[in-house]
Amino acid sequence: MSSDLAFALRGVGTAVSSSFGLHEVSFDLPTGYVMGLIGANGAGKTTIIRCLLGMRPIDTGEIELLGHRAPGPVALRQDIGVVLDHTYLVGDWRLTEVERTLRPFYDRWDGVRYRGLLAEFGLDPRAKVKDLSRGMAMKLMIAVALSHQARLLVLDEPTSGLDPVTRDELVGIIGDFLLDEGHSVLFSTHITTDLDRIGDYVTLVHGGRVVRTGTKDDVLAAYRVVRGGPDDLSDLVGVQLIGLRQTATGAQALVRADEAGLLGGRVLVEAPTLEEIAVHTGARVPASAGGAR
Amino acid sequence: MNAVVRMAVLDLRTVAPYRYQGLVVFGVVVALLAHNRPVVVVPALVLLVTSQVAAYPFVVADKAGLETLYAVLPLPRRAVLLGHYAWAVAAFVATATVGTTLALLLAWGESVPFGGRTLVTVLTLSWAMFVVTVAIQFPLFVRFGYSRISVLCTFLPLAVIMLAVTRLHLTIATFASIQAWLPVLWVAGAAAIVGSAAVAMAADHRRAG
Lengths: 293, 209
Known about the structure:
The complex is a heterodimer. Chain A is 26% helix and 28% strand. By secondary structure, chain A is an alpha/beta fold. In chain A, strands 6-7-8-3-9-10 form a six-stranded mixed beta sheet, with helices on both faces. In chain A, a hairpin with a 4-residue loop joins strand 12 and strand 13 (251-256). The longest helix of chain A has 14 residues, at 134-147. The relative contact order of chain A is 0.15. Chain B has one domain (3-208). Chain B is globular and about 55 Å long.
């Protein structure tokens, strides 16, 4: 087991239903960095997170988590903060009761920090969990995660459904968490702009498979977006078009960066954004593409 | 603090916001049943209140997604399940204690003879009803979740108790005549709770797999 890795998944597979599962999922995150797990709804992001956290058994492969082979000792959960796209607390608890309830379970619970974070996030300690807006509830869950001094923060779609201001605030909070170089973050989202500020690594998933994983810069450098007229992309030779989208006025697709030189001069070739990579890689899986494209 | 105790305390905190509703039910039961028959106060409270209070963490867990909280907390799954049982037994003890006190006061106020062997018999009967309820309900809640099995779990223990009462022609007097067997019922009840916990753990393993 490597102590340099916050976590690693190696060949992980699990059957969720007869039609969906994870297949040979492999990626890792060095300690001290943020990884964005990107994919459309139903791509397998939540299943990956549930496997990582030991909430779902795996059929194949292995998972390493904070230096332990998962699921690892129960005490390992002291070091992991989990923020899901919904709260998992009693709606009628006041925020003071949340602390009173959770504190006995964590050896390093810091009540001063919890109350400080509530104040910083503008959360009323007397408010009930059920009365919080979605953004406030996400902030509460982050306050809980930071109050027990987690080393790894796992967030599943925390910004989904939030307004841009609150999303920006949450991304800032996660950025502050990373000021300690021993802290790491896995952040699943389908809103790729969240990762523009804080993402160090990116893993693209689609259909329960990893499409691409690596540093954000490497992933961005691996592709080019190509645009042309409606028929400009239909007769290219030796170039695999990824997620070709054609309209009456034009066509657009993603290509591997090493194949971009084969494109003729009649098409426009540009560096893609994460959004474009996510859209095109998640749009369609060519039969010949296999796992990574 | 032991992990099982911490889990039982978590169950207490889970139901705590709904304490006033529980007190209303408690008061209604006492008001309806106490006037003429203080002797039935404890069994009635145990049957109607404890069975609901003991199971309420499952109700709230289903509604609030507490299974995720249990999975995130540094708490062994075994402690989660045993904690539910510990909470239920604590709820029984509290209800029986308060119920006994109330029954004794009511009996004293109405000059009804109540105490000694009758009290032991009533408490044993209450324990038996509590055990039947919890031992049947909890493994089913664990395996299927409260919302999927709530109707069956509400009526199945009652049906078993009714069947036992009618088939065996049980009355308080019957129990009084088998005083020597009452300690056995306490021990058998404890064994049933332990057996139910083992079944619940197996059911949980099956559910997770």
